[in-house]
């Protein structure tokens, strides 16, 4: 009975973990292309559904003596084996899982109430914000397509947890949105710059820190409300 109940319980826990993971990604990475775990989400959903179905069949067999017990046990073993193999295969291809900075710890999910115990004073936060804005304008770290929170914290010389707090509370954005808004503004500026007349829109996007066409189009439209091509047309009107 406990085995049967374990399937939906673990399935619910997995969904909650995925939600937490999404928050962590957007709080630490400026690009989700190399850490996109949709494949894992799909595998868990598929395996959870298959496991639940097999448990139902096993229960029916136990109570009503229908179906074959061998079908249930072999089905569970086969699906579990395939699940493990696929996780190993796709996991090894997920390079960001194996390339975290050695001496930097990523900020886990941060809820507003978690900052209540922070030692960061309002005056210090203001200084950090000013320092961050100046660094972004002068050094343009967002041009690095693989920029993450620990890297930026090291470059701007602000502790990671304080930098995360400043971005979340003082700017009102997560790290992903903060960096990509900078990139979108850079794209818009380059589109208006005659020196980039010979660049394609995608070429400008890559020059501004984006690392894929799909990510660029999605982020640009989410921020501006129109596609890059539509924005380009407005410049010639």
TrEMBL record:
Keyword Transmembrane among UniProt keywords: yes
Every HTH araC/xylS-type domain range: 130-234
Keywords: DNA-binding, Membrane, Transcription, Transcription regulation, Transmembrane, Transmembrane helix
Pfam entry (one): HTH_18
Transmembrane stretches, start-end: 43-60, 66-92
GO molecular function: DNA-binding transcription factor activity; sequence-specific DNA binding
Transmembrane helix is among the record's keywords: yes
UniProt-listed InterPro entries: Homeodomain-like_sf, HTH_AraC, HTH_AraC-typ_CS, Tscrpt_reg_AraC-type_HTH
Protein name as catalogued: Transcriptional regulator, AraC family
């Amino acid at each position: 009975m406990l085995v049967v109940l374990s399937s939906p319980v673990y399935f619910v826990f997995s969904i909650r973990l995925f939600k937490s993971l999404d928050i962590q990604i957007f709080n630490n990475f400026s690009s989700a292309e190399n850490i996109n775990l949709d494949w894992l989400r799909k595998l868990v959903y598929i395996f959870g559904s298959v496991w639940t179905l097999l448990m139902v069949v096993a229960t029916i067999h136990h109570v009503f003596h229908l179906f074959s017990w061998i079908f249930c046990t072999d089905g569970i073993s086969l699906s579990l084996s395939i699940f493990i193999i696929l996780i190993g295969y796709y996991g090894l291809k997920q390079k960001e899982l194996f390339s975290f900075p050695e001496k930097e710890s990523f900020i886990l999910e941060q809820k507003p109430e978690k900052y209540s115990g922070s030692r960061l004073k309002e005056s210090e936060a203001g200084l950090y914000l000013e320092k961050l804005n100046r660094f972004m304008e002068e050094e343009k770290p967002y041009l690095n397509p693989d920029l993450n929170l620990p890297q930026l914290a090291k470059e701007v010389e602000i502790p990671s947890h304080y930098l995360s707090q400043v971005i979340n509370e003082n700017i009102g954005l997560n790290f992903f949105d903060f960096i990509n808004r900078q990139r979108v503004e850079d794209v818009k500026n380059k589109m208006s710059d005659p020196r980039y007349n010979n660049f394609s829109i995608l070429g400008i996007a890559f020059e501004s820190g984006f690392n894929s066409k799909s990510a660029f189009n999605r982020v640009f439209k989410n921020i501006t409300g129109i596609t890059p091509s539509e924005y380009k047309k407005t410049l010639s009107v």
